[in-house]
Automatic annotation (TrEMBL):
A biological process term (GO) from this entry: mitochondrial translational termination
Name of the protein in its database record: Peptide chain release factor 1-like, mitochondrial
Originating organism: Varanus komodoensis
Record-level Gene Ontology MF annotations: translation release factor activity, codon specific
Domain of life: Eukaryota
PANTHER family found in the cross-reference section: LD18447P, PEPTIDE CHAIN RELEASE FACTOR 1-LIKE, MITOCHONDRIAL
Amino acid sequence: MWWCLARSPLRQRGLGVAFSSLSVAFARCRKQAPARRSLSSQPGLHEVFSMPALQRFLEQRQREGLRGGSWPELAARIRLLRDKEQELRDTERLAREDENEDLRMLAEKEVVSCQEEISELKRQIVLLLIPSEETDKSDLIMEVTAGVGGQEAMLFTAEMFDMYQQYAAYKNWNFEILEYTPSDVGGLRHASANIAGHEAYQHMKFEGGVHRVQRVPDTEKKGRIHTSTMTVAVLPQPNEINLIIKPKELRIETKRASGAGGQHVNKTDSAVRIVHIPTGVVSECQQERSQIKNKEKALQILRARIYSIKLEEESRKRQTVRKIQIGSKGRSEKIRTYNFPQDRVTDHRISKSVHHIARFMLGEKLLDEMIQSLKEYADYEILMELVSENDPTRLR
């Protein structure tokens, strides 16, 4: 695919850009129900830059940049693109018409070089067009919770938590367990972890939602396939500027830890429960033996939950329509199915399936490729929304 052909300095910003079906963008902008299509049907860079709406948008930005507006770097790239496209047309004409065979061969090589430079300039332009989100550079807190399905759901939740821990190691991120509540049979009822590292939230934000597993449990004697679910919540970590919580807004309670833990559980009031009085948001932690450490972790979780609520409210106020392919990243949205009998993982937001579940659950290349596909689709929707908002003809 075109966005993987070269690596520009801008590409290192992590803003992968791909372009899914044009019919999806057209349907959204015309308020029609979109038709989902596979990844293989998405148009290339050339087709996208042939869109009249995008051409008008680029011309508008170039004029603004030339007048000293807020898009000088973009205007410079667009000007370079126009010059290089004219150079390509002249070189192609020379390759067709020159009678000297040596000159024609040289011109043909120049055509290939011009085409590569044009593709690179187009990639850079698209990267400049897509704005980065405030939270993309944030660390995050990930919470996993078993859903419907009893013990099988808890076993699947434990496997998912392990997968994300391994993915953090694969990406060289720091993974710190904040809370871990196991079940009696080796599964996991609920857990949370702090994940910190380069572009951690930018990658992980697409994992939030309901994950569904379909398989035959070990305890199933008749071979029937059971369906269970678990939920992932991905909460960006706020800094002191983004979110200020006053001490008087908190009610902090201590209690004895529950669950396995020997004498420590029975005799030490180490568990901490914190309530944010204005919002009613609650967080608890009993992971550590120290009450002080549990308080720190509970505050960390509380801040992330409150910040997530604040971001959701801001998003609703903007009334964004960018939910067709990527969805709302909400806790209630079913985003992915893990079908063990068919050895298949399907992401329902982009209708992409991969096989080899065991390899996918290792949290390495296959998971990373799925997340990259989601990022690319999201970037496409951002671009289409940006263009349509600034084009009075609405992508006609």
